[in-house]
From TrEMBL:
Gene transcribed to yield this protein: SKDI01G0580
Positions of the catalytic residues: K251 (nucleophile)
Chain residue ranges for the region called Disordered: 368-399
EC number(s) on file: 3.2.2.-, 4.2.99.18
Designated name of the protein: Endonuclease III homolog
Lineage, top ranks: Eukaryota, Fungi, Dikarya, Ascomycota, Saccharomycotina
Originating organism: Saccharomyces kudriavzevii (strain ATCC MYA-4449 / AS 2.2408 / CBS 8840 / NBRC 1802 / NCYC 2889)
Amino acid sequence: MQKICKPSSMAILRKRPLVKTETGSQSEFFAEKRTKIKQEEVVPQPVDIDWVKSLPNEKYFEWIVVRNGNVPDRWSKPLDSSILLTPASTKVPYKFQETYARMRVLRSKILAPVDIVGGSSIPVTIASKCGLSKELISPRDYRLQVLLGVMLSSQTKDEVTAMAMYNIMRYCMDELHVEQGMTLEAVLQISESKLDELIHSVGFHTRKAKYVLSTCQILQDRHLGDVPATINELLALPGVGPKMAYLTLQKAWGKIEGICVDVHVDRLTKIWKWVDPQKCKNPDQTRIQLQNWLPRGLWTEINGLLVGFGQIITKSRNVSDLSKFLPPSDPRNSLDWDLQSQLYKEIQQNIMSYPKWVKYLEGNPELDVGVASDDEHEGETDKETLVKLEDDIPVKVED
């Protein structure tokens, strides 16, 4: 049997701030540590769907934001180390705990499209662009817009999806005279050819126009005009795959029944060998392997964490273009886009190899949030359950 060992001692990168500062060695990108997020705050608990449906607008949004962890300064709040722990029999990637904790700190310093126009953000962002405050979005309409946004996002950049959603919203308000904008009843008034025209910028727009209208009709006929709250019912909708279903279930209903694995999560976890690329031929197989070892308390946030980095890999993006989706009062308008671009470049240069990524994160002391090393956990490696990875980085694979 081929011997599997830990990588040799990791080289330390040049210890320099990620940005220039005039106030000493502390980088302007990295704030002081904040109160840690506890285990009980992130481990998913059962959801009473009837109770969720009964919530008025304000209470629903308060609950869903906390439930999904979409709170201010989400990534800058360190996780309690207990969240990152796994049973002794579970094998995890090399230096996983420390690397994951450092990734969260770095993620807090970048603005990615998913933060403004991804998943659960699209309805609120687009409503704001159309002059509708969050208070005017009903929970039912919000859930519908989450589902439709997810359906349109397949093989399409978030920014492009957002413009398509904006076109639908404006059409509903300006041509159909529906004050609330994109409601189920309004969408069902749009002809398939017109909808195709409104979403023409997204990938496979003609097919998606058909799927959207068919789905809306099913919601009206079979689900009392609301988005289904089970994975099987969502997967039964036209054009809805596992990634879309799990993301909608989480963002619309607060149910975390599986990890949402999209193209970015699929790509990075394979590059880093967090899953076995030879056995994971599609994102759903990646999801199953990832769920075999990733601590359940991270299932809610892993998509948002990795998607942010994955979008940065796409060098065709101009980071400053994101500002057009921000309302004038949004504090993110004051970001230094040159510094954001600098961070983008550093991440692009290091993220495509797990050993190099680990070294990069270790080489920036500002990212050190004091999470305990998992060296003692690695010492219990069972060679028979591991795949030989580049630079001898082990990861458990599905039986």
